[in-house]
């Protein structure tokens, strides 16, 4: 696991790219959806959160972002309680990509990506929080290049396919220069080609120093991650490498199904046994 990030990625005074959950409990309505979760996520690592429906995956992700109140426990970012970071500080270090990212349909792709800089209001004729800078322009160009979206930067969002729109949403998140990128089922509604394309893009970002935390349903897709966190009924059932977590015993305990697990291209391959 790598500490730090790519050159130009912002670093905090406390040390970069470390997000920790310590004894986290989160209530969703009347239900304690997440119970006693301990987990650590770092830059330079692709971590996937897996588990059956209702296991608490998305609830945990929202807690890691500071979007859900905690019943107990603590989330820490770079050694500091997450609640002590203001919104601007937090957004410079943590970027979020939702399941179905809403994008303004009649807006140019490039203008959407500028919003990731936090100074995007300048583009819309609103009162800017700070002047648009050369560094902002470079970050937007870099995000467009890294997601292969520069070739249609002048098109409107309404003209894009679902996969292209998801790449634009990723570019907007990357333009912020975060230390950690959190994604909630990012491959939902994508076909196989776009799914694999997105996973390759995320892997390139991890190799450049970004930390990725993704909620994934597809276990064979999750096998491409560096580390897995398997939730069952709101609790951590197993954590470790894909080979350590994706075992018939763990899958039976979490999902209630029988599977066979083989190896393909150095990764576990989960096959239903029934």
UniProtKB/TrEMBL annotation:
Entry-linked Gene3D superfamilies? P-loop containing nucleotide triphosphate hydrolases
Keyword Transmembrane on entry: no
- The residues forming a coiled coil are none
Alphabetized, the UniProt keywords read: ATP-binding, Nucleotide-binding, Translocase, Transport
Give start and end of each ABC transporter domain. 19-258
Molecular function via GO: ATP binding; ATP hydrolysis activity
Quote the PANTHER family the UniProt record gives: HEMIN IMPORT ATP-BINDING PROTEIN HMUV
Tell me the protein's name: Iron ABC transporter, ATP-binding protein
Q: In which organism is this protein found?
A: Deinococcus radiodurans (strain ATCC 13939 / DSM 20539 / JCM 16871 / CCUG 27074 / LMG 4051 / NBRC 15346 / NCIMB 9279 / VKM B-1422 / R1)
Lineage of the species this protein comes from: Bacteria, Thermotogati, Deinococcota, Deinococci, Deinococcales
